[in-house]
Amino acid sequence: MPVLFSSSLQISVILCRKSECTDRHSEKGSPSLISAMTSRDHPFMLLFIAVHLLIIHSAESQSFIGVNYGLVADNLPPPPVTAKLLQSTSVQKVRLYGSDPAIIESLANTGIGIVIGVANGDIPALASDPNVAKNWISANVLPFYPASEIILITVGNEVMTSGQRNLMTQLLPAMENMENALHAAFLADKIKVSTVHSMAVLKNSEPPSMAIFDPSFSDLMKGLLGFIDRTGSPLAINPYPYFAYRSDPRPETLAFCLFQPNAGRVDWNTNIKYTNMFDAQVDAVRSALNTMGFKNVEIIVAETGWPYKGDSDEVGPSLENARAYNGNLIAHLRSMVGTPLMPGKPVDTYLFALYDEDLKPGPASERAFGLYKSDLSMNYDIGLSKNIQTPSMPKTTSPKPKSTGSLWCVPKSGVTDLQLQANLDYVCGHGIDCSPIQPGGPCFEPNTVASHAAYAMNLLYQTAGRNPWNCDFSQTAILSSKNPSYDNCVYPSSAAEHPCIP
């Protein structure tokens, strides 16, 4: 059982028990070679430097946000309806577990990038006969491309941790044959070939900077990485902080997994302080790549998500947790902060999943990862819709508080200074402009933890998108309709009111 890393608080983070983190998709409606499969391993978000980043990186430009489109259900909308739904969101990429022609065709001329997949069971045939790969490309790519923007073909899913040695050794030849087939079709520079890995490919991952790939298949892994490095393909991984929390269900672990305020966890080798599980897991993979000599290989997140409900004995699934994880993850990606080892660039991330899949076996949580219901209504809102209008309020002309119908995020009564100090440190340490509460600033007085934290918490809430989960702070904050502004200290109720934000 690989351990991610421990903090100074002696908190261990379990990446995943293989038996717990494996789930298989069996898709319907794909050509004979394709039956799709998948499985999952798996204080607060790193928030954006300023709200103008949300404007610059608008819905149309958020190419780093994708979604998994599973078909293990009997009640899904027709593909053209789903295509229209996707176009109404900031989702710019879709991952399929197979190559359903109706879905691929429905996404034609939408500008949405498409990832299609080859099932594990098809790997032996692809590996043994180059003509099988050529026929696959002829059947599943050429009829649709370029109108349907296929960008990646994933050959197999979590093969390296499947325990099937024969399949593991056949994976690289299958990928090479697929790549050669794309070359023959003059598409190798447009469509890449990769495979998807669970986090269990890592071993000795404590701390993240010391992570390595499992030595039991390091030679095979090195061959795969050499292929994707040579072809400019990405390494696709499935990090699931949800599974890490399920293995260590303590409040501090939950906050760490949900991008909520927490003490952080320090990588003792680099002294880097991680404030969320997602970054720690992704950076562990980055370190393993670097150690093996593949510093230029790009990482993409093929799956990550959180169930919004589960059975009574399941730890972690809830509407609040799912909304917090996915919503805060989106905010983290939009911030362009990146991870400590890959700063300044978001990792391309495919959320799991677009819809609930009512035919999936297993516990109730397996059928509750969807962002949308089959009737196209949201299970919960994480700000993906393009047509969401950000509420605004006229600038305050009087320094005295008055009710305007807007909301402010303020500390709950009874919250301790220790809790507020943690919130203050987190907000001001992650890109939010706290100069108004510095000496000489209009909100410096009164010089108390409570006053400074109140201003900082509200500013984070306003710049993060004004979603209810942005005013959680580990349940130490509450939304209020009473304007807390005083004297010359104006608490913004929209980003435009903050004088320090362009």
From TrEMBL:
GO terms for biological process: carbohydrate metabolic process. Signal peptide: none annotated. InterPro entries: GH, Glyco_hydro_17, Glyco_hydro_17_plant, X8. Its EC number is 3.2.1.39. It comes from the Eukaryota. Residues 407-491 form the X8 domain. SUPFAM superfamilies: (Trans)glycosidases. The keyword Disulfide bond applies. Pfam families: Glyco_hydro_17, X8. GO terms for molecular function: glucan endo-1,3-beta-D-glucosidase activity. Keywords: Disulfide bond, Glycosidase, Hydrolase, Secreted, Signal. One of its GO terms (cellular component) is extracellular region. It catalyses: Hydrolysis of (1->3)-beta-D-glucosidic linkages in (1->3)-beta-D-glucans. It is found in: Secreted. Its main location: secreted. Belongs to the glycosyl hydrolase 17 family. PANTHER family: GLUCAN ENDO-1,3-BETA-GLUCOSIDASE BG1-RELATED-RELATED. This is glucan endo-1,3-beta-D-glucosidase.
